[in-house]
Amino acid sequence: MPTLLTIFGIRFYFYLDEHLPIHVHVTCSGKKAKIELDPEVKLVYNHGLKEQELKKALETCVVYRTDFISEWHKRFG
How far, in Å, CA of 47 to CA of 9, rounded? Predict the structure, then answer.
């Protein structure tokens, strides 16, 4: 599971066998979420992240969206 970024105690990563639509997985304090990046940043699911953690995760995806999408294309074509 390649880590893209760890910030605010939140880890953003891909699985090795990802599928469309382009998205990242997020973990924080043992809780998980999935955030779609294209065509826009939006929450797919949240399994326990607190509201503030989720807000930071979504804001981080907005800031790093282009970088995350670029990494997706490098890894998955």
Answer: 16
Burial bucket for residue 62 (CB in 10 Å: 0-12, 13-18, 19+): exposed
Omega within 30 of 0 (cis) for the link into 2: no
The band of 34, judged by pLDDT with boundaries at 50, 70 and 90, is: very high
d(CA 51, CA 71): 27
Closest among 50, 46, 28 to 36, alpha carbons compared: 46
Q: Note the pTM of the prediction, 2 decimals.
A: 0.95
Question: 41, 66 in Cβ contact below 8 A?
Answer: no
**Alpha carbon 11 to chain centroid distance?**
8
Q: Any idea what the Cα angle at residue 38 is, between residues 52 and 51, rounded to 5°?
A: 10
